[in-house]
Write a structure and sequence with these properties.
Elements (H helix, E strand, L loop, with lengths): L37 E5 L5 E4 L1 H7 L17 H15 L10 E6 L5 E10 L9 E7 L1 H14 L4 H7 L2 H4 L6 E7 L5 E5 L1 H9 L6 H8 L3 E3 L6 H9 L2 E9 L8 E8 L8 H30 L9 H12 L7 E10 L1 H8 L1 H18 L5 E6 L2 E9 L2 H15 L3 E3 L2 E3 L2 E9 L5 H17 L5 E3 L4
Parallel strand pairs: 16-17
Antiparallel strand pairs: 1-2, 1-5, 3-4, 4-5, 6-7, 6-10, 8-9, 9-10, 11-13, 11-16, 12-13, 14-15
Helix pairs in contact: 11-12, 12-13
Length: about 475
Amino acid sequence: MTAGSEQSGEAFDDPAPSREPADTGQLPYAVFDDLTDIIVVLDERFEIVYANRFTTTILGYDHDGLVGRSITEFLHADDIARALEVVGLMNEDEAGVPITPALYDIRHAEGRTIPIELNGVTTAGHALTGHTLVIGRYSGDHALQNTILEMITTGSPDAELIAVVPRFGSWRHPSEEYAVLYTDVSGTDQVTGTSLAVDLVQRHPGGETPWAVARRTDGEVLADHESLPEVLRDDPAARGLGACWAIPVPDPLEDHPAVLIGWSRTDGPPASVHRYALGIMGRVLTLILQWRRQREELERAARHDPLTAVRNRAGFFEALDDALGCATDESMVGLLYVDLDGFKVVNDRHGHAVGDDVLRIVAARLATAVRRDDLIGRLGGDEFAALCPSVTDTDALTAVADRIIEDIRRPISVRGIEIQVGASIGIATASVHVEPDQLVDAADRSLYRAKAAGRGRWHVADPT
């Protein structure tokens, strides 16, 4: 916490304590009263003899609620032994051990704990021998970083992760406004943050607003009141807002960046003060967006066939189960089970490398032959399937089957070789929720009948 410029958002809900100096007798510690760090003096019994105003503010106690009590009363039980060990080292005459800051969970007056980075020094050899000076800084960034790590570990949704980012600014400047504009994995723009900042972005998503310009140009924007577009000039000012930062953050899943937005208040610190907080927010948001991209790639790899890039068996069955859950009498689910005719000869005669090339081309042709909302999967070897959700009759399915058969039978040129394969197709439908295996088995039996009838054709199973 930087003296004079940063405050904890959690700490200022309580009434301001008295500005009368602490009654510390002849101890010259009142000089610390105006620092925005925790300053505590302990006697030889580890009891508090002085606490500055910021200590009372950050911990929620009044002055009398701190002085005269042992420091151990405010430490989490898991931290007491460690803290006493450090104090013991400080008091050893010949320890020669440098004491470095460490993080402790400190009890707030409300019963919760807050992470405070503490360090201390004894006054041995000085006029006030027997006292220990403890200096602490509220570690809001550390606490929020731990929150994000825990959320990532437990698989929290992206929206919840990104919603933490504005808090890296809010704990420092609780009266300021922060927001994040980003695109979710479905391609929909979202905005999260403090209510006023979110409201302004939602009501003015485009045009020449700072966030729209930052997203469009991928450049940082700092707009004071006079340089704001007209639609933003009066409303924010009426609500006490002045300058606006808009800082783009690269999004590896999108062609355009996410945008960090920060408003300074007309009666608060200058806009430049926010650069540090926005910089931390940018690094955290970058981490989340990169994690999102890596997770999406892992999930895609788990659901897609590495050779053909269509859904693998597990991914296809997952989509099929979802579709069957929505089946009704008016909206059936159709399944086309596609088996390549003559593919074994390709592998036997030309080798598996050529066979793999053929499978990739077949998968691409299947994707162009089906309808826009249909889904292709490779169930194994040279067996593919097309999921056709929301069909009203089998005519739509047989039309897709005709296109597939026509497209697959066209010659395929790979590695200087011209190859021709065919396709036989079994078609099955479901108008009620059945298990995916049941519908696939019905389509497989129908495929067998198509092959028995001469290959290169389709057969429709009785409705399931």
